[in-house]
């Protein structure tokens, strides 16, 4: 009871401080930089509205991954199992944003966030997170986003399918269901190159042993230590999960694998029972031979011949450094004003009108001459 009373007083004190710093007087005294800029000098994670978090632990489950434990500030509103956040880190004075899914249960009582990141060979941000991010560093987060999530009414039969680092959102789903004491059958089907590459290998084995309603199926392409071997196929699915048509399936993994899984469900008329998430950009075909017009960067007073690439790539080729993040149309960090001209959205193929509009330049290709306020 004394500890509870102390926590209440501490929360009340924080409420009073937050209210005072959010006042008009505080805003006037700290103009033009704002309260956060001053307070962060001695309390880096403090912000009136922005979600910031302190890195309190890092661990390496595999040779090419890092698991970050983050303590968010009081602005964090939580998440649904399966959703993602936009993580922003500062690297050499430039803020970079990428999307990652929390892997912890939504019922974790410590209020922490767990992100597991696989460092790809050409992954500028992921390699920084694995090699250079230190305990004590402050990072920036969005609130949780995305429609890929467990429904509030939990399905009786659940099939979780993941590949590689796509395990993180479905791991959150599994941990959440276990914390809730879910009684329905859960099959966890995961694909990796080898056991040494699998994230959460030991914990999954423990969950499988502890919860009788959880079936763990691990498929490896390079060794035979899993319950299955090789890549996903319809034949393998029928043999390993014969009742898959009765399940609500949740899928996250590399594009090639996801495409094969989607086709199986589509061919059998089960697409409504397959829920999926991925953060891979659609490939951009650069058609320089048929590209016409030019790209005008009016604020920078620069002009470039349209190369057929995305506007972000063309801006960088022109020597500009517009803000960007995920480079796949998710984080919206690259949004800017198109003052004139038409653009094609690389994700949908849709062509905009020629008037002024906000566009995401990482997924926009100019159709003729385009003018940007950059």
UniProtKB/TrEMBL annotation:
Its cofactor is FAD; [2Fe-2S] cluster. Residues 48-151 form the FAD-binding FR-type domain. SUPFAM superfamilies: 2Fe-2S ferredoxin-like, Ferredoxin reductase-like, C-terminal NADP-linked domain, Riboflavin synthase domain-like. Gene3D superfamilies: 3.10.20.30, Nucleotide-binding domain of ferredoxin-NADP reductase (FNR) module, Translation factors. The keyword Nucleotidyltransferase does not apply. Keywords: 2Fe-2S, FAD, Flavoprotein, Iron, Iron-sulfur, Metal-binding, Oxidoreductase. The keyword GTP-binding does not apply. GO terms for molecular function: 2 iron, 2 sulfur cluster binding; metal ion binding; oxidoreductase activity. It comes from the Bacteria. In the N-terminal section; belongs to the FAD-binding oxidoreductase type 6 family. This is FAD-binding FR-type domain-containing protein.
